[in-house]
Design a protein that fits this description.
By secondary structure, the chain is of the alpha/beta class. It has helices at 16-32, 40-47, 53-69, 83-95, 109-116, 124-136, 143-151, 171-185, 192-201, 229-237, 244-251, 266-273, 275-291; strands spanning 4-9, 35-38, 72-76, 98-102, 210-212, 218-220. Helix 3 (53-69) runs parallel beside helix 4.
Length: 298
């Protein structure tokens, strides 16, 4: 047995007896292929009420954490792709997981597109709903206040820079999600809520920072000139509390590109005392250079 973890993705709601039997069959197939399968809907549904919206959301969140840890995802296509499966598949695509497609010949239309073409670049509205979904799972007072504030800003439509990475409408949103997926792939062992906050919100300092030029493109129009990472921290703290670890990581996510980095040993001290700060910076750079194929951060 390879011992690699494999997430089993198949339907549960509807004909539950049939679907449970199918999940068991897929679990067996994974074992026979040499994987260590994780099939959340075979046991989480026994402990939580899937008909209760709050408990179902908790179950889905637990499943998300398990999926992140798995190297492969086995998709059972015999009975189509359910709503819950659709989210899991989208997440798996974003995380770059290996796909094992079982009964793929039974898939058609949109289901087949989702499974086989999930790497297509999603639209801004789809990315927005993904962002909201991920942040909504964070258990922290003020999350809803922060989401309400983001809705009143240009966060979801702003570019990530003037001419480097993500220099287009929705670029900031896309970059924030790319950093999130890069960060969780690093398997840092850090609390998932902290990872989510640091990754998704590290660049809120870019809200209302860029304005369109008449000849095309964007230019800086800074209205709150107090720095980069520290500005993000201040804006977030207006809506919800942050831990010292989150403050340090977000404040120093620019690494050596930060104008403060050359003064004293503050950056090296931050990285030494707060590994998340280094992990976030590296995830930010990976997203910028590998996912968005841009240049230096701006």
């Amino acid at each position: 047995m390879e011992g690699k973890l494999c997430y089993i993705c198949s339907p549960y709601r509807g004909d539950t007896a049939r679907n449970v039997a199918y999940a068991q069959e897929l679990t067996r197939r994974a074992v026979l292929k040499g994987y260590a399968p994780i099939t959340p809907h075979l046991y989480i549904t026994q402990a939580l009420d899937d008909e209760d919206r709050a408990e179902r959301a908790l179950g889905m969140e637990a499943g998300m954490h398990l999926l992140i840890q798995c190297e492969a995802v086995m998709i059972g296509g015999r009975f189509g792709i359910s709503e819950g499966m659709g989210y899991e598949i989208g997440l798996a695509h974003r995380l770059g997981k290996t796909f094992l497609i079982e009964d793929g010949m039974d898939l058609n239309g949109k289901d087949a597109d989702l499974v086989y073409e999930g790497q297509k670049r999603p639209g801004v509205e789809e990315l927005k709903q993904e962002f909201i979904h991920l942040l909504s799972f964070v258990e922290r007072d003020g999350v809803q206040s922060l989401l309400d504030w983001l809705e009143s800003t240009d966060f979801y439509t702003a570019p990530a820079s003037t001419k480097y990475h993500g220099a287009y409408a929705g670029g900031l949103l896309e970059h924030s999600l790319n950093v999130y997926y890069r960060l969780v792939r690093r398997n840092t062992g850090i609390n998932i809520d902290t990872l989510t906050i640091a990754a998704l919100l590290h660049d809120v300092c870019k809200i209302h920072l860029y304005e369109k030029q008449d000849g095309g493109g964007y230019r800086h129009n800074e209205q709150f000139p107090i720095g980069h990472g520290e500005k993000s921290v201040i804006l977030i703290l207006r809506h919800m509390p942050l831990t010292d670890e989150e403050i340090t990581a977000i404040s120093w996510h620019m690494g050596a590109f930060d104008s403060r980095a050359g003064a004293g040993r503050s950056l090296s001290s931050a990285w030494e005392k707060c590994p998340l700060a280094l992990h976030l910076h590296l995830a930010d750079m990976e997203a910028t250079w590998f996912d968005e194929k841009g240049g230096p951060q701006a």
